[in-house]
Amino acid sequence: MIEIKHRQVEELIEKAIQKISKDEEYRLVSITNKIENFDALQFFEGAKHIEKSRTFWTNSDKDFYLVGIGQVYEILAEESRFTGTKKAWRDILSKALIYNPYESPGTGIVALGGMAFDPKKEPSAIWSNYKQSHFTIPEFLLSVNKDDCYFTVNIQVRKDDLPTQLANEIERVERILFAHSELEIQDLTIQFKNEIAPFEWKNTVKKATEEICQGKAEKIVLAREIRLKFNERASITSVLRKLLETQPNSYIFAFEKGNDCFIGATPERLVKREKEHLLSTCLAGTAPRGKTAEEDKQIGKELLHDPKNRKEHDFVVQMIKQAMEDYCTDLEVPNNPVIYPLRNLQHLYTPVTATLKQGYSIFDIIENLHPTPALGGTPTEESLAFIREHEHMDRGWYGAPIGWLDSNQNGEFAVAIRSALVQGEEASLFAGCGVVKDSDPEAEYEETNIKFLPMLSVLGGQ
Ligand SMILES: C=C(O[C@H]1C=CC=C(C(=O)O)[C@@H]1O)C(=O)O
């Protein structure tokens, strides 16, 4: 049985009520307790019974999980998403009453969210539940950090609230969340698969290579979409479970909004912050996995020395280096990439470490980094203009920063690739690739086919 101190919750609500001034509508109260270990996916599944939107996050080492249920506060900084969210977060923290005796990252008051790839792109109907920028503070948060487990309750406390009643309601929901429910295993069948405009996409790749040859850009990342229809409504818990089983070295995430869920298994870290320590990642340049260990090693070796892939990768390295320089000291970037193996393919990988200068937020870094040439291109503005004009789809949250931050200067953002927007019995899958002057449309098309596999294979495909 998970032991949560309900008398403490009641007392802290009482305290908060006393602090609320006449002109304040409510106070945000955040209470964290260390609890017995509880499985993150079980917790996610438990929330199905209370019909609140759920958020799931795990890092690529799978030793850190966040599961958020419901929302006690939302930040919708549509106009200036980076500075707006940064300011809103600062304001929230300055007023909230936070009871969190633990230093562990991802405990206490945490915001989880994401944003659209390109705010200048006309939004399409499928993304209507996903705002340009949307961060939420959940009502209930389970944080698992290695062998430790924490539970946070976030409450909007009003002057006329009755502490016992509020605490009892919280206790009722907790019982549901921590009940051990059977995890659903579902085998979806794809009834209909619609590749959106594959021939046009290959033509767009060709057009991009021509513009690159004319010197209008150096690299342009082009993405495409597959729309699926299933035999039944997809179970998000079941999809998450399969992703956890099949996708090593990847962040696994799910952000539910209304009836929809944006879900994926991305290998690409944008930036991780632990106090002043930053870690970013250059991930670009791709090859398949080999069928035998020997073949795999050979393909990896060729990838490491392939000029086209090295060039694609180097655009990302140079840009990330430059983007972080103004905000950081001790910037360290190895001279050569190494191989980053995934289940279906392998990438070129260069880690970047740095120290964040005082006074800056993780949002300053994200603003400068997004989109890196792994998702946009080089130069940024020219490649974005090409994507906006020629891609036959709206990327929505695909390819954009997605992640979390806490009140103790920790946070982590990934780039939301290898992802799908699941909408009941349907889903849109997204995948893209870097186009440089000598890209071959057919080969790039095949590369995107492999990049669809992580999501396709857990949604009933091959
Ligand atoms: C745009 C995607 O991948 C990027 C990340 C790693 C390698 C990439 C590449 O080699 O083209 C892409 O830049 C995607 O998976 O949808």
From TrEMBL:
It is an enzyme of class 5 (isomerase). Its cofactor is Mg(2+). Keywords: Isomerase, Magnesium, Menaquinone biosynthesis, Metal-binding. GO terms for biological process: menaquinone biosynthetic process; salicylic acid biosynthetic process. It holds the Pfam family Chorismate_bind. Residues 200-451 form the Chorismate-utilising enzyme C-terminal domain. It comes from the Bacteria. Coiled coil: none annotated. Pathway: Quinol/quinone metabolism; 1,4-dihydroxy-2-naphthoate biosynthesis; 1,4-dihydroxy-2-naphthoate from chorismate: step 1/7; Quinol/quinone metabolism; menaquinone biosynthesis. The keyword Repressor does not apply. Mg(2+) binds at residues 312, 447. The active site is at residues 219, 268. GO terms for molecular function: isochorismate synthase activity; magnesium ion binding. It catalyses: chorismate = isochorismate. Its EC number is 5.4.4.2. The keyword Isomerase applies. PANTHER family: ISOCHORISMATE SYNTHASE ENTC, ISOCHORISMATE SYNTHASE MENF. NCBIfam families: isochor_syn (TIGR00543). Catalyzes the conversion of chorismate to isochorismate. Belongs to the isochorismate synthase family. This is Isochorismate synthase MenF. It comes from Oceanobacillus halophilus.
